[in-house]
Design brief:
The chain is built from 4 helices and 7 strands. The chain has 145 residues and is α+β, with helices and mostly antiparallel strands. The chain has a 7-stranded mixed sheet, sandwiched between helices. A hairpin with a 4-residue loop joins strand 3 and strand 4. The radius of gyration is 15 Å and the shape is globular.
Length: 145
């Protein structure tokens, strides 16, 4: 990751305004996701990561839910070419290991984001999820230490 960025573990209560601002910009304004669909009760019980620029501006975020689901990875446009989008899931996977999770899965637009390289390095496989959705998610399993 670019040395001018810092990944800060956080939670919804500590960084709510910054987390919302990033996700609002990326998901609601850019991707036209309805605001009612973007913010949910899961935010309150998830571990979040906040990416700060060297000027201390919030430029990225992601969360890991209690189920092991990594989601809501968002990076503002002007920082997408700086490996921020790769560093976020790496940090969240580290958090999952620290919490003793035996597996995680990633919910993301893989064709838009630079995760393919990471998924291969992390030994993930793609699996179908949902009963009739046909959607696929990368799932990684950890060996118990």
């Amino acid at each position: 990751m670019d040395e001018s960025f810092e990944l800060v573990p956080s939670d919804w209560w500590t960084s709510r305004e910054q987390l919302q601002a990033i996700r609002r910009k990326v998901f609601i304004l850019e991707q036209k996701i309805p605001e009612a669909d973007e913010f949910d009760d899961t935010d309150e019980n998830s571990s979040h990561v906040l990416v700060l620029s060297e000027k201390r501006d919030a430029v990225g975020t992601g969360r890991i839910e209690a189920t092991g689901k990594i989601a809501r990875i968002a990076v503002v446009a002007e920082y997408r070419d700086r490996d921020v989008g790769t560093a976020i899931p790496e940090r969240l996977i580290e958090e999952a290991r620290n919490r003793g999770y035996d597996r995680v899965f990633l919910h993301a637009h893989l064709w838009k984001l630079a995760y393919r390289r990471c998924l291969q390095a992390w030994n993930y496989k793609t699996v179908k999820h949902g009963t009739n959705s046909g959607k696929r998610s990368p799932v990684g399993h950890f060996k118990q230490r």
